[in-house]
Amino acid sequence: MNAPMPSAAGLAVEQLVAAPLTETKATCCYCGVGCGVLIQSDGEKVVAVRGDPDHPANYGRLCTKGSTLHLSARPALQQQARALYPELRLARTDQRERASWATTLDFLANKFAATIRDHGPDSVGFYLSGQLLTEDYYVFNKLAKGLIGTNNVDTNSRLCMSSAVAGYKQTLGADAPPPCYEDIDQADVIFLVGSNTAYAHPIVYRRIEDARKANPALKVIVADPRRTDTAREADLFLPILPGTDVALFNGMLHICLWEDLVDLDYIVAHTEGFAELKQTVREYTPKMVAEICGINEADLMQAARWFGQAKAALSMYCQGLNQSSSGTAKNAALINLHLATHQIGKPGAGPFSLTGQPNAMGGREVGGLATMLSGHRDLGNPQHRAEIAALWGIDAVPEKPGKSAVEMFEAVRTGEIKLIWIVCTNPAQSMPEQAMIREALSNAELVVVQEAYRTTASCDYADVLLPASTWSEKEGTVTNSERRITRFKSVLPKLAESRHDWEIAVEFARKLEAVMGKDKSLFPFAGTEEIWNEHRESTRGRDLDITGLSFKILEEQGPQQWPYPEGATTGKKRLYEDGIFPTASGRARFVNTVYQPVADRVDARYPFHLTTGRLRDQWHGMSRTGTVAQLFAHAAEPAVAMSKTDMERRQLHNGDLVHVTSKHGSQIFPVALGEDMRAGQVFVGMHWGEEYVSGRGRDGDGSHGVNALTSPAYDPSSKQPELKHAAVKILKAEFPWRFIAFGWIDEARLLTLQSDLRPFMRKFAYASCTLFGRDKVGVLFRAADDYSAAPELIAQIEQMFGIAGAQVLRYDDSKRGNSRRILIHDGKLQAVALAGDISAEAWLKEYLESEQAVATLGRLLLMPSNKPPQNFKSRGRIVCNCLNVSETEINDALMTMPGTPDARLQALQQKLKCGSNCGSCVPELKKIIASHALPAQAA
């Protein structure tokens, strides 16, 4: 039967509603892999995203985070989370009020000018972000160092990449990763160290998986304190103790020397300083190194032999090396190993630092750190300062080094820096020793926060909030881990009154110039191309020379790698193939690296090594991923992972609350069994700030997430803090009273509710607040305390979840302090609140999420018994987030799947489709398969 044709009026309405869709090239705004994305939009909103099949970073692939970018851009969520207009308060006792851009920037220009006049240029500071575009970074750098005359401009890249910068410069002479992604395909050995690549850089890991399939002889070595998904798939796993990387690399070099696996001809022709290092590594015998690192001597020998004997060995590393008080030495020691064995400057070989943020590399290119200048120049070099002064048309660039991140906030705390301008980052979540950071932000005369998301913890401290544009609205360039520059254009107009980060900096600079009486502006820029062209000129003759590039080339020919000097027709895939390095002598330099233990050492009072790291489906402080409910499915709530041995010794069970306490602070977390943990070590995801986990704290001053625990100790060369490790003690938190509320929430108020619940979190000893759901979305609030909360407080929270009125089923046992509230809507669970005994939460939440009718349950909903209904089967944890496949479903399917592990994986992908979309869950699927017995008939 043919469908009826719509009327002419119907066609007209349909045409008005269905705007034409366009697809625009851009990049993912998460990690430094730099994946290309195609954004589908209707001109007003992002409808969908897919990987760009032509982009050389990912060839169409996206991870679970990138593939949900469109969900974070939904208009309903943007309206709740985004900063929409400037806000200003003139005194700390005032609330911020909406203000015009003109009023706000005039206020800032006058305030900065007066402070600089009275206290000098170094009384102000700028704290930037690796999520800014290169053009944003460039104008802020010029604003601080060129106009104001202070080098107090640093970035959150200091927290993730500065040790890699220092390591490259000390050894190779320039901050330039030598390899490229193609080297993964050509390597004989891949050495992954300090990186859970499967989680942190999933698209790089997909490429490693492909390389292993294409070359079965390829060996993968992983060094990591945890048996992560990355480590589990390695040919050789080295479970080193936290912070022992220098000893490991020195020990491997010792073995290579002993077994004649070094390339002496290369060392003599292209390096210097080897004799001193050779004397040092003589002491790093296999026995000693195995004891320091906590690994088997035979495994150490095997790793060194594979690396030294390989035709091409590629190392890939990230925060495990960088975020350390000896991070520069770790980087340098690994590069030493590459230089000594000539595993550099050839296909498939080299030390490859995997960048953490989407444009940390671009920020480094323009001198976005307190000790650097544009074009990879050193602030301490008079000639370099003179070159930039000439380019900018100023008398001089200040000589005095600026404050690095930790130093900057300490200077704010003490009053040395009066005004702090924070751009596109959240130090009230990401910096170590949160007590000091929050004291600094409270003490500052003025805190300016330039931010797209008003929901971050740092916005609470803002005296001035400047609304910035964000992904899909911005246009400019970024540089990824393999030195590849991508140019992209905006897809949507700027939201409400927000402005591009570079626009805000330029307009403020012009107003400041007027107040300071400057005749000629240093900021004549009308758009990003003009800014980029000036940056391009700053690279002329430098190691990252891009004078042969233009916006036109990037648009017409796609992303390009640097260097790309004038006259070139292509960028350079890999560096140092000629054995010439950008040092004074033209030779690479061996650094005499000596192992130093972690700064925060374990002892009888603090007997556990706490390490932090990434979760698979979340990114950084979660200001963006935290708006997407389905990204909480894999790791639903904050937790501290412990080994089975340590949990049994302390009589702990999954879900028990524990005090995790370091010398710097304390935070309560639920404990979870960590199959990847060894005894004496615990792990917490780095993403959990006070936006998601909080409480009253030890003295009622609040607890502030995982970075309440981490150490501000930093590397003397790179100034990068030791965020990866802290010594802690674990004590069971004996809270007799618990509370949980969860329910479906209209998307139009989802993030508003989450934000409104944040003050309530501080009223309990422990509280957490996260999202859940997919097509429908909800909020989960959890709390615990020493005593029952006031009924009025609980009633307030229940009211916020809509748990009120005639549709609510109620049960109260005042004698035992238990209560249960069930909101029914259309015959299904809509929201639940449990107080006292909350043991029914698991099945009630799954019942709510499955949207099963409750008519058959009857009084069971309110019975004191917490047993689930008959025939109720828990889905369990979600493994494949893309396609919503649970662990229970996978286990059930495997019961009837015989064959090899690879065959069973393929069968799972065909039947359940798990692992067939982005592939981020494939390592976990392999783990489940490995632990699941073959069907009886196939065994």
Proportion of residues in β-strands: 15-25%
What is the CA–CA distance across the termini?
Answer: 53 Å
Please state the overall shape, judged from the principal axes of the Cα atoms. Answer: globular
| Helix content bin | 25-40%
Tell how many strands the DSSP assignment holds.
Answer: 37
Biggest β-sheet description: 7 strands, mixed
Tally of distinct domains: 5
Strand order of the largest sheet: 5-4-18-17-16-6-7
CATH topology of the largest domain: Rossmann fold
Secondary structure tally, helices: 32
Mean of residue pLDDT values:
94
Structural class: alpha/beta
Low-confidence stretches: 1-16
CATH class of the largest domain: Alpha Beta
Radius of gyration of CA atoms, rounded to a whole number: 28 Å
- Based on the coordinates given, report the CATH architecture of the largest domain: 3-Layer(aba) Sandwich
Q: What do these coordinates show?
A:
This is Molybdopterin-dependent oxidoreductase. This protein is an alpha/beta fold. It folds into 5 domains: 8-81, Phosphorylase Kinase, domain 1 (2-Layer Sandwich), CATH 3.30.200; 87-158 and 360-526, Rossmann fold; 162-353, Dimethylsulfoxide Reductase, domain 2, CATH 3.40.228.10; 603-733, Barwin-like endoglucanases (Beta Barrel), CATH 2.40.40.20; 878-931, Arc Repressor Mutant, subunit A. The strands form 9 sheets. It has a 7-stranded mixed sheet with strand order 5-4-18-17-16-6-7, sandwiched between helices. Strands 28-31-32-30-35-34-33 form a 7-stranded antiparallel sheet. α5 runs parallel beside α23 (501-516), α11 (245-258) packs antiparallel against α14 (286-293) and α11 runs parallel beside α17 (327-340). The longest helix is centred in the first third of the chain and has 19 residues, at 101-119. The two termini are 53 Å apart.
